[in-house]
Amino acid sequence: MKERPGSSVFIAALLALVPFLLSGCGGGNDVPEPSAPTVAAQVEVSDHEDADKPKIQRAPDGTLIVVYGDAPDAARRVYDVKAAKERPARDIYAKSCKPDAVRTCDRARDWSAAVNLSRSSARSSMRADWRGDGVARDYAGDIDKPNIKASGPVLVVTWVGKYCPDGDLVTAGVQPPVQRATEYLERGGRVIPFSCVWVARSVDAGQTWAPAVQLSTGERDAIQDANAGNYSPDTKQGRVAITWQEDPQGLLLGEAEGPGDGAAGSNTSGGSDIWYVSATVNLSNNPATVEDDFVLAQPVRLTDNRSGFLAMVEGQRVIDAAGAAVPANQIEAGTVGASRANVGLDGGTAIVAYEEKKGAGEAEGKYVRYVTFPRGDPPAGAGRAGCIISDPAKNARRVRFLTQSATDAGTAGLQLAIFWREGVGGQGATADIVLRRGKGGTGAANLVPAVDARCATSDPAVAAALRNARAENMSSRASVATVADDGLRDDTQANAAENAIAHRGVLRGPDLWIGYTYTKSLARMATQETNYNFFIRKFDAATRRWELPRNVTRITDRRINVREPRILGTPKSSPAACPTGAPDDPSTTDPAQCQDTNVLYLAWGTQENVVAGGDLGLFIAASTDGGANFSAPVRLSAAAGALFDDDESAYETQLVARPDGLRFWSVFSERVLASGRTAVIYRSGRLEKN
To answer: Between 144 and 25, whose confidence is greater?
Structure first.
């Protein structure tokens, strides 16, 4: 049973956090601490028992859209390879709410009925021995997490799922499936179908949704989809870009050296490639001609890793629809594999960054590669090598980037920040967060510190000899860096004991904030001598200076780690309600729609600081002075977790804010620990400026 304020257990939980709560998140100066956010009551928006991975977006008209996975029928079972257990098959759902004089969205009845976007959990496109007992059964059309992007009134949701009915996406109609599967000997010989990629869209801020479209066939195993978009309210036209990875031998399990069990896409077979598809949006046409609203191009293979077919099968087998092993000479292969791509748009230019395994004879680990191209004209044929922007001698992974237009960058010219984890070890080894900035453009030639002009190579000898300047080190000695010794130029092995993960950022005009969770000694975490806190540092492009790293969560209780942090800036001003961006301009009709770039939100989860520690609760703090000072943290979730004798926990929050920053809206997952039931929780909040 949930302990509520006033109970002895809840009070004890708060007392245990007193050192944390009193520490605040300030910058250590004499400026008054910003007011803390206030939050409304929690609202459960999911309808079933196994909700998962909620996301939230806000359309320009104020409509809130929430998407999430949920299981409509507990009797439809699948096997979750990553979690190593059976669970109910999930679908993708969407709900919306537009706050007005009648609806606050802080009540369950204010939200629309759920729309099932995937409609696949009751369907099957392949029979397989997924229980490992020698019996082929229909495998339900289960889904992975949704990914959503709002661009004006256009919403694009992508996901990967096990329902792959169309085996030929070029030929009209639904052709016989070509979906394959993988036999996992480590999971009792279970045969699990490959996944394919789907996209659903709305062009009216979530009021209606077009039927989902299948983007890949399941002949290779898809995972790690991402999407980006932009939209002009003047022309009512927009652009969309989508990426994902496909593994010809199926998702591989981990090697027991990292934090998870694999099957998430980071461990790839040779020949795994990044795929790409674009779409054009045109809402200026006759409303009756809806077929022109959203036009998809044909998917293309973006990278160049496929080089032929297997000579022989080693490890897990690939199985066809008849239950037979696929011959080696029908399974694509290559020397290396690409994974975990991110995609963005700079006007009409597509930006893609990903990690890629190094080949035989090269240093251990992966490269981070980066490529830009006209959105509607990706590299032809089998793709091309992306520019290696990481240190060729190091292991680089989990690349992320932030972009803004030249107009938004202003005279400082900061249009790109691209950052990743880098170190010398393999899976599970310590690493730093390193970064390059794009000045005056987003191409590889615009990167600072610079990369070798020969960086777009697949030749191992050329790659090893690249003379990339050392990227800026965001996290080196974060807890002890000084003005005289700020760590920015440190090699990632300057302090091999420390570790930084979960990197996030915000880019607004000349200001860039980079955050990450950090511990000064990964090895000493095992004895709770250290823990993870969230650090940020700010770059001012006008002065070209980085501030020192600052611990902004400051949890002193070493039983507790920060997990899944978020740093959120405000969205751009509304062209209609705040055309000049100034709240007091005579043309402004709604000051709340004017962007205040000085407002930032931090949100984070907490977790027990033990191996496979359980989730605890969620917190939020805010800044109104560009991150110089943050308010005291406020509990975002009612759940506190088992460490505080609460049988509920909360995790994986997502946030959006109004342009003026004085309202925010969040969703997160809440789990009942005793029963395993998981719900999507919505919670809004307000911020007062001092």
So the answer is: 144
Residue 15 has pLDDT above 70, yes or no: no
User: What is the rounded distance in angstroms from the CA atom of residue 402 to the CA atom of residue 405?
Assistant: 11
DSSP-derived secondary structure for 597-654: TT-EEEEEEEEESSTTPPEEEEEEEEESSTTSSBPPPEE--S---GGGT-SEEEEEEE
Three-state DSSP class for residue 525: helix
Model confidence pLDDT, tens digit, residues 25-64 = 555 455 677 889 999 999 999 999 999 999 999 999 999 9
- The three state secondary structure string of 469-523 is CCCEECCCCCCCCCCCCCCCCCCCCCCCCCEEEEEEEEEECCEEEEEEEEECCCH
β-sheet bridge partners, residue 345: 350
Residue 400, strand partner residues: 419
Residue spans of the domains in the chain: they are 8-686
Cα–Cα distance measured from residue 456 to residue 386, given in angstroms and rounded to the nearest whole number = 5
Distance CA 282, CA 289 (A): 10
- Please give the backbone phi and psi of residue 85, each rounded to the nearest 5 degrees, phi first: -160, 160
Mean pLDDT to the nearest integer, 640-644: 95
- Least confident piece of the model among 89-93, 114-118, 290-294: 290-294
- Rounded CA-CA distance 633/20 in Å is 9
Helix (H) or strand (E) holding 407: helix 406-409
